[in-house]
Amino acid sequence: MQDKIAELRRHLSPIYDLKAISYLLEWDQSTYMPPGGASARARQVAFLEGLRHERLTDPALGRLLEELHAYEETLPYDSEDASLIRVTRRDHERAVRVPAPFVAEAYGHFAQTYQAWMEARPANDFETVRPYLEKSLDFSRRYAEFFPESEHVADPLIAEYDYGMTASAVSKVFAELHAELVPLVKVVTNQGEADDSCLRQRFPESTQWDFALEVIQRLGYDLRRGRQDKSPHPFTTVFSIGDVRITIRVRERDLGEALFGAIHEAGHALYEQGVEEGLEGTPLAEGTSAGVHESQSRLWENIVGRSQPFWRFFYPPLQKLFPEQLGKVSLDTFYRALNKVQRSPIRTEADELTYNLHVMIRFDLELQLLEGKLAVRDLPEAWRERYRADLGIVPPDDRDGVLQDLHWYWGFVGGAFQGYTLGNIQSALFLEAALREHPEIVGEMEEGEFATLLSWLQEKIYRHGRKFTADDLIERITGGPLRIGPYMDYLRDKYGALYGV
Ligand code: ZN
User: Fold this and answer.
1) Helix (H) or strand (E) holding 236
2) How far, in Å, is the centroid of ligand 1 from the Cα of 268?
3) Is position 265 annotated as part of the catalytic site?
4) Is the pLDDT at 288 greater than 90, yes or no?
5) Which of 54, 93, 145, 265 is catalytic?
6) Which of 142, 200, 330, 355 is the most buried (most CB within 10 A)?
7) How many A from CA of 172 to the centre of ligand 1?
8) Residue 157 CA neighbour count, 13 Å, CB half
9) CA 330, CA 449: separation in Å to the nearest integer?
10) Alpha helix locations (H) across 229-343?
11) What average pLDDT does the segment 215-222 reach?
12) 181: CB partners within 8 A, 6+ apart
C-alpha cells in the first residue's frame, strides 16, 4: 500500500503548492503591492483557486481514496496514513458537493459586495450594501442545500471553519457562557473604568516595532522560518512549514496595537511553525480549525501577554525603551491599563471580558438570518437591540454597528464568527491542562522563559496539524468535551482581582 500512499502524496503536493502560491500573492497584495496591481492580482488568485479546485475534485483522487479504504480500516485512527486518507477524503467530498460554476458565481458576487462595503462603511450607508448582503445570504442558503443531511442551515458553513461543530452545539455552549458573562461584565463595568492614559502617549514607531519583534522571538517565534511586515490589517500566512509570516500595524499613540497584534499573530504562527515536517505538502500541514487556531493566538496574547508574570519580566526593559513615557508609571498601573474593561461598540477593540459578547451577538444574528427569521432590512435595528440588551450601549451609527466587520461582506454569511469565542474557551482548557502537568510554567514566565509551555503545546497540539479535529484534541488533552468552566474560572480570578469583585 506504500506505493498508493506515495501516489496520493504526489497528487496532493501540487494542491498544497497552489494554495501556498495564492497565499504568497495575497501576502504581497496586503503588504507591498501598489494599488494598480489589484485587478490583475484578483484574476491571478482566482485562476489559481480554479486550478486547485479542479485538482481537489479530480475523479482520479476519488478513485485513489476508494482504493485506500481497506488499508485505512486496518490502521489506528491516529496513524499518519489513516489521518492523511481521512482528511483528504473529507476535503475531496466536501469540494465535490459544491459545483464549480456556483463557486465562481458566488465569489464573483462576494468581490462586488466587498467593494460596495468598502464604500458603504465610511459613508455610514447600509441601504446601498443591503441588496448585496441579501444576495450573499441567498448564496449561503443555497450552499447549505448541497449538504442536505445537515440538521441546521448554518452547519455546512460552520464546518468550513470549525469542522465537527454544529449550530446547536455552538448555541448550547454560547448560551451557558452568555448567562455567566453578562452579569460579570455588569459587575465589573459598574466599578468604574481603569485609567489607560499611560498607553496613549507618543511612542515612536520604530522602537515599538523592535520591541514587538524581540518579545515574539522570546516566545519562540523563529525568524529563520518567518518574518514580520506591516499591513493595514494584521494577519498570519503560511507558504510552507519553513516560511510562516506575520504582519502587524503600528500606531504611534497606542502602545498596545503593535505589541498585542504581534503576540496574537505570533500565536497563530507558532502553531503553524510547529507542524511536523513530515506532513508538508499534504492537507494535514495546517492548524486544525478556526477555534483551535484562535485558542493559540489568544492564549499567547491574553492569558500570557496580558498577565502579571509576563510583565514582571518585560516591563523593566520596556520602561528603559520609553523612560519619559513610562519611567514613572508603576507596573500595577500599567497592568491595569492593559486589562481595562469597558462597554464599547467595536469588536476588534474590545477587552478580553466583553469581546465574547460581541461575537455571540453576531453568531445569533447570522443564525436568525439563515433561518429566515430575520430579514436583512431589519438587521441594523436587531443589531442595536442586542447591543442595548447585552452591553448596555447603542452604537452611534451603522458604521460602528452592523457595518463594522468585513466578514458578512466578503463571503458567505455564517461560520466565520464562532471560532473567536470557541478559541477563548479552548485556550483556558488547554492552559489548565498544561499547568496541571507543569506548574512551573508561571515561574518561568517571570524569568522570560516560555520553552516549557511552548514545547507542551507543540507536543499536544501543534505537531499534529489537522490529524485531529478540535473535539479530538480537547478529549485527548483534557479527558472530556468542550466546557466553559476553566475559562470562566480564569476570567473570574483575573478580573475579580483587578476590579475587587
Ligand atoms: Zn486571530
Assistant:
1) strand 236-240
2) 7
3) yes
4) yes
5) 265
6) 355
7) 23
8) 28
9) 23
10) 255-273, 290-298, 308-321, 323-326, 331-338
11) 98
12) 353, 356, 357, 488, 491
Decide if pLDDT at 42 tops 90. Answer: no
> What is the extent of the structural domain holding 293?
167-229+240-499
Instruction: Give alpha helix (H) positions in 57-125.
Output: 59-67, 69-74, 80-97, 100-123
Does residue 29 contact residue 37 with C-beta atoms inside 8 Å?
yes
Could you read off the pLDDT of 295-345 as tens digits, one per residue?
Answer: 999 999 999 999 999 999 999 999 999 999 999 999 999 999 999 999 999
d(CA 200, ligand 1 centre) in Å? 24
Q: Is residue 159 part of a domain?
A: no
Domain of residue 319, CATH code: 1.10.1370.30
**Does one domain contain both 105 and 206?**
no
CA 204–ligand 1 middle distance (angstroms): 25
**Burial classification of residue 195, based on how many CB atoms lie within 10 Å of its CB (0-12 exposed, 13-18 middle, 19 or more buried):** exposed
Return d(Cα 356, Cα 6) in angstroms, integer: 44
Element (H or E) spanning 74, and its range? Answer: helix 69-74
| CA 70 to ligand 1 center in whole angstroms | 39
pLDDT surpassing 90 at residue 493: yes
**Ligand 1 mean position, distance from CA 264 (Å):** 6
3-state SS class at 281? coil
Q: What is the DSSP string of 341-355?
A: ----S-GGG--HHHH
Rounded CA separation 292/418 (Å): 11
Angstrom distance (rounded) from CA 291 to CA 313: 29
| Predicted confidence (pLDDT) per residue in 189-212, tens digit | 999 889 999 999 999 999 999 999
Q: Please identify, among 103, 125, 150, the residue that sits at the C-terminal boundary of a domain.
A: 150
Residue 491 pLDDT: 98
What span, in angstroms and rounded, lies between the C-alpha atoms of 336 and 49?
A: 46
Same domain assignment for residues 251 and 146: no
Residues in the chain: 501
Among 49, 268, 292, CA closest to 165: 292
Look at residue 15 in the predicted model and tell me its pLDDT: 97
CA 245 to ligand 1 center in whole angstroms: 13
Q: Give the angle subtended at the CA of 485 by the CAs of 482 and 490, to the nearest 5°.
A: 120
Evaluate whether residue 235 is within a structural domain. no
3-state secondary structure of 253: coil
Residue 351 lies in a domain: yes
Report, as an integer, the average pLDDT of 228-236: 94
Q: How many domains does the chain have?
A: 2
Cell of 91: 476535503
